[in-house]
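U., I forgot to send this yesterday:
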Amino acid sequence: MTRVVTSCGLLLAALSLAAFAQKDKEQPKAKVYKTPQEVFDASVQAEAKNDFKTMVAVLAPAAQKEMAAQFAAEFAAERADLKAKKDKESAEMAKFFEPLFSVLDKHGLTEKGTPKEVKKTRDAKEQAAARRRPWA
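Result:
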């Protein structure tokens, strides 16, 4: 459950940062780390403090987009799985994730607009193929 909540937080932070970056092109530059070790240390400290903004901010812009796409695909598939199940636990989980699903909807990843081909998978090749596939 902790991993799920952390994943939710990271997804929301990534989407928030991406939306904020699109609105304000004149924003101050992100902190630049001199070494990979500094990036790692900042990430570890941010995780210990549950500072999701910093956890996302230490990533390169391309990595932020990649992570946002991955989480979006996973939670779009999770929503479909939860809706398909009719048990009480699935209904409770769907209610718990409703704020996250609202963010997906806001960014055009609605329940009806998500292709059935988007499935949860741990296979890296399948994940990469799903992110590259044009859904429009």
